[in-house]
Each structure stands twice: as structure tokens, then as C-alpha cells.
Write a structure and sequence with these properties.
One of its GO terms (cellular component) is plasma membrane. Its main location: membrane. Belongs to the sodium:solute symporter (SSF) (TC 2.A.21) family. InterPro entries: Na/Glc_symporter_sf (IPR038377), Na/solute_symporter (IPR001734), Na/solute_symporter_CS (IPR018212), Na/solute_symporter_VC_2705 (IPR019899), Sodium:Solute_Symporter (IPR050277). The protein is mainly alpha-helical. α7 crosses α19 and α7 packs antiparallel against α20. The termini are far apart.
Length: about 575
Amino acid sequence: MSVQSWTYLIVGLSFALYLYIAYRSRAGSTKEFYVSGGGVKPIHNGMATAADWMSAASFISMAGIISFMGRDGGVYLMGWTGGYVLLALLLAPYLRKFGKFTVPDFVGDRYYSQTARIVAVLCAIVVSFTYVAGQMRGVGIVFSRFLEVDINTGVFIGTFIVFIYAVLGGMKGITYTQVAQYCVLMFAFLVPAIFISIMLTGHAVPQLGFGGNVVDTDVSLLDRLDGLSTQLGFAAYTEGVRPVLDVAAITMALMVGTAGLPHVIVRFYTVPSVQGARSSAGWALLFIAMLYTTAPAVSAFARANLLQTVDNASYAEMPAWFKNWENTGLLKYEDKNGDGLIQYYNDKSTDAAFLAQATRNGWAGNELTIDRDIIVLANPEIARLPNWVIGLVAAGALAAALSTAAGLLLVISTAFAHDLVKRCMKPDISEKGELRCARFAAGGAVFVAAYFGINPPGFVAQVVAFAFGLAAASFFPAILMGIFQKKMNREGAVSGMIVGIIFTASYISYFKFMHPELNTAEHWLFGISPEGIGTIGMLINFIVAQTVMRFTPETPASVQEEVEQIRVPRISTD
């Protein structure tokens, strides 16, 4: 069977499974729509949390970024993993014990303020829409390549699928769909990694292959990769080029941004108890580690395969995968010197000796442009794996993107229906009315997400990194102070959130959209890039909140007592 036939078969079967689960798990009440009725088993919640958290950025883009950036790309790996540990150990059990449906619910009640609730709702919507744009873009990329439609059509197909199971089942449908999606995406990520690891290094375990020698040589894979990279004018794969402060800022922004992501936090409300929240956090960490410890190996395998395949190769003799990806527009070849060969190298290198060598070779500039988002998807084809593996990877990528998109859309619909309409605008709304409102909001959010998927402001992982920065500057300080500083009052928390998110969004917009020509280290504040500015936004949030708190009325005694209780393990509020 051809690649396309396998893709139709595997993707079709996986979609049929998701829709069947959504139909069987359709929500009948607001509690089922918002938190799946609160009765999900920890191991199921762990798998759903892992699928919710491991997005298209994790499945498609993270390995691509590490593959192109080498050691510097590790900031995404460290930041996202560290952030989940921070969330699981520091925040999740306490948030579950507080016993609310959503993060804005926690912020509104903890800070006894409708203004705080509305600010939190706006932050949740901004963060979620920013994040979901990356997911829908990922869906479009996968469909465009494997179903041979343009990216916009791919986004519309993904939108339709998400619309069905998010609107029909709410959190209940999404939870059990995500369990299935976790199984699909992990199988799809591990199978090609194992195949390629055996082919390149002889190790069946990719993590061992990453540190092993190339087959039939005594040269390690990383040394081979360093050599291939420097020969083409790139930095050595195992060396970083970013300033240390910027690396630290990006890692921190990703960490605290993860801990403040509302679609991950809300998953801890779906288990029946605080103990269940802790248990599911442990399961999720185990499931996440399976992919995250494999990703660096996949990145190295993909980079080595790519450089060996395209370096000075004849364009006319390139395999079919090259032409297929060209058709999507995500791979571009321009024969600048007319020799019919592919010269892929760093023509912006500052090494005069290398550039002189390139001139002597007759090279007229880099001729190959590769979108980083295609690395994982193209890797099985580059390695000439069986067609069914290629179709499986397509299904895994779609599962990763759709599972996170659904979780984010539910946050948006819940923020609108529960936090804005029910808690602020119309407290007497009926159960059925609120459920209809939530479904309407989910449907509307799906179509807005589709628009952002068609017009994303960057490639997938960059867009997602911005969402993390915004979450870091707004939610994380408010949640942390809400749990561990009983005297933090509403005036301080609201001021901090507003200033933090405005500063971070303004900084990102200035360098990414208004003046991209100035987006270089010499123009950045303290040498920190837009991807890392959420760390500064978070610090500003803390400083503003602490300052305002000292000049405004003290937190009511009843709220301080409630905050003390949620930190005591033996006092249950389940």
C-alpha cells in the first residue's frame, strides 16, 4: 500500500475511534462538561493530562527545534519538563483542594473579587487562543502533507473533528478521547524512533542510541553530528550560541508558564480527591517522560539523516519524499548556481575561511529552506521506513495537536460560560442554559482557533512559547501567592496580573510584529529575547503585587483561614 493509503486508513480509524468515544461520553450536565463529573481515575487522568500537555509543539516542533538549534533547543525540553514538575508538586494538589471548576474560579474566589475573576478570564482566553493557534497550524501541516491538501483545508478538517467532540462531550468526551490519543501519539513517536535508532546505532532503545556510536564505527553519533554541522558552516551540534542569561530566561518562562497553563491545571479538577490529583500527576509525569526522553534522540537522528541525504546531492535524483514536501511549500529548493546539486549550508556564517571555501566550491548561497515543523514528520521517509510507519506518524501528530486544541477550547468555553456568564453576568441562569452557553462558546472558539491556525504569527513552537510567556507573567504569580501568601489581597493580585501580561504582550508584539528588524540581542532588554521575556513579566507581576498590597486593605480573615486550610494535608475538603 502507498503512504497515502496507509495514512487514510490509520488516520481514518483513529478519527472514528475519537468520535465514537465522544458520542459514548457526551456530557449531560455542566459538571460533566466542565470537569468530566469529577470521577476520572488517576491513571486515566494521567494519560489525558499527558496528551493534553504534549501538544503539536511537543510532537512536531520540539524535535525540529532541537534538531536545528542543537544544544540551545534544549531550553524547550528543560522548560516544559521542569514546568510540569513544578505544577505537579507545588500547585496542583492545593488547587484541587480549593475545589473550583477553573483557574479564574480560583482567582475570583481566592481574591474575593469579580474584577480579579474577569481579569483571569481575559488572561485565560488570551493565553488559550495564542496556544491553540499553534495546534491548529500543526493540524494543517500534517493534513497538507499526508492527505495532499493545502494547509488551510487541513485546518478546516481538523476544526470539524474538534468541533464534534469538544462541543458534544465537553471535558467528559475530551478526557476519554485524550486517553486514546495518548496511546496513538506515543506509539507513533516511539516506533520510528526505535527503527531509526537500530539503523543508525544498533540500539533498540533510542535513549541509548543517542549516546551510542554510529553502526560499524567507533565514532559517537554526536561527534559525527558535530563534524557534519561544522563542515557546512553551522555551529557544532553540542555547542550553544545563545547568551546564558537568555537561555536561563527562556527556560524559566517555559517552566512557570507551564505551571500557569489553565488547560493543564483544570485536569486536576477531574479526579475525585486531592490524593487522586497527586496520583494522576505522578502517572502523567511517567507518561510524559516516555516522549520527552526520546525527543533529543529523534532530533539527532533526524539531523544526521537530513545532512547526509541532502548534502551536495543531485536534485533530479532526490527520493519522492523531497518532492512531496516541496509541494506543501514547507521545503524549498532554489538552484542558485545552476549546477543541479543541492548546497545546504550556513551562508550567514561569520567564519571567513569557511565562506572562502564555499566560494572556491562554486557555491552561490544556501539553496535549501526547510521548515522546522516537518522534521519529525519527514524523518521516517528520509530514513526509508515502511509506509505504514509514515502513516502512523501522521496519526500521532494529529492526535497530539487535536488533544491539546480540545483542552484549550474547553478552557475558553468554560471561562466564557461559567466564569463570565454564570459567575458575573447572569447568576440565575439555569443548568440547561449554562450548558447551552458552554457549547455555543466552544463552537465559536473552534472557528476563531481555525482563523489563527490559518494566519499564525510564527511557526508552531514559537507561537506556543509566547503563550507560555503570557501565562508566566499573569497566572503563575497570582496562583502561587494565592496559595502560599495568605495576606495577598485582591488589589495586589489584580494589579500584578494586568501589568505583567501587558508588559509581556507589548514586548513580544514590539519585536515580533511591529519591528522585527530590531529583534536582535543588542536591542533586547538585558539581552533577553521575546521568548524569555515572560520571566521579567513574572518578576514585574510579583513586585507590583507586593507593592500594591502594602498600601491597600488587608485580606479578610475568612479568606486567610481558608488559604491556611488548603495547605494542611490532613484537612480534607473533597
